[in-house]
Every structure is written in C-alpha cells, then in structure tokens.
UniProtKB/TrEMBL annotation:
<dbReference type="InterPro" id="IPR036249">
    <property type="entry name" value="Thioredoxin-like_sf"/>
</dbReference>
<dbReference type="GO" id="GO:0006979">
    <property type="term" value="P:response to oxidative stress"/>
</dbReference>
<keyword id="KW-0560">Oxidoreductase</keyword>
<comment type="similarity">
    <text>Belongs to the glutathione peroxidase family.</text>
</comment>
<protein>
    <recommendedName>
        <fullName>Glutathione peroxidase</fullName>
    </recommendedName>
</protein>
<dbReference type="GO" id="GO:0004601">
    <property type="term" value="F:peroxidase activity"/>
</dbReference>
<dbReference type="InterPro" id="IPR000889">
    <property type="entry name" value="Glutathione_peroxidase"/>
</dbReference>
<keyword id="KW-0575">Peroxidase</keyword>
Amino acid sequence: DIKGNDVSLATYRGKVLLIVNVASM
C-alpha cells in the first residue's frame, strides 16, 4: 500500500531526524 509506505517513510525520517537532533546536543 502506497499510503502505508509513505507513513513508514515519514516515521523513519522523523526517527532519524530525532536521533540526529539528540546526537547534536
């Protein structure tokens, strides 16, 4: 399902950005 993939991708990107954000601090 395209929608499912989009949600998974968005969640994955969000987690990566969050990890990078914490690592930067």
